[in-house]
Request: fold
Amino acid sequence: MTINLGIIGAGRIGRLHANTLTTRVPGARVLAVADVFEAAAKSAAADFGIPDFSTDPSELMRSGDIDAIVICSSTDTHCRFIIEAARAGKQIFCEKPIAFDLVEIDDALAAVDSAGVQLQIGFNRRFDANHARLKRAIEGGEIGDAHTMMIISRDPAPPPIDYIKVSGGLMMDMMIHDFDMCRFLLGEVVEIFAFGDVKVDSAIGEAGDIDTAKVMLRFENGVFGTIENSRQAVYGYDQRVEVFGSKGAASTGNWHANAVTISDAASVRRDLPLHFFVERYLESYVAEMRAFVEALSTGETVPVVGNDGRAPVLMALAGMRSMRENRPVGLDEVAP
Reply:
């Protein structure tokens, strides 16, 4: 069965998905791409062999030929497009986060439920082979009862200040992936204690954000966890996870362009890690889109549903409140 798709947003992530869907996802056919910037939409259509482009996303919603909408636009438009797509009877894929506000998210999820369509959230790291293996190790009892978890996530360089100002902040923009990974691996979090500061670039602080954070988490099942984020690791994209348990530990480290180690009289060394998320997680982007299209083709439930998009936003809000009030914050304190 072929699933006909329309893509909203022709920026970096929209182009990545367009490339994936047109070259590496069996059963997917992209019919149109829309972006408010005509040059971006036209370029994406030409580069990836997409038959049509538009500056009006509503044209994709009205198309009787399009089965599903892939939302890759700015976060402030996500809920509006989810609701519009749901009311048009389209299946939906939406990049993270759904929104910065829980009431807006709940309105969007209600529209999806009312329309009887499916919504998959773009937490691609769940589809990384290493993280999937960690989950199997935990669920299969290979490390016994989980006791603690550690996630380290550091970018090679901060994004532009103009982006920082509209990103929702480090916890909504960057750590949101780590919050999702917590739930994916170990289940629900009930309490968060967060610390944050500006240690990389004072302009980030002037924009009202932080660039360095440490978060402690208490899980519903009694596991303790930590997340560490930095906007700048000078050696490259730093992505590590470890879960420690009663019978051992399971961990995954950084990816490198090669596995060569150079040993000489001065040192033992290897090349730097892959530089950024596109290189590190490229295959996971492919896998998540394959899973989306396959679920639509077979009628199965998509693997990352609406509440999986809501819960990390709730965690981010709890983390930001914890920083403001300098105390642990229960997630039940934040929910509307």
User: Anything to note?
Assistant: The CA atoms of residues 4 and 65 lie 7 Å apart. The two ends are 41 Å apart (CA to CA).
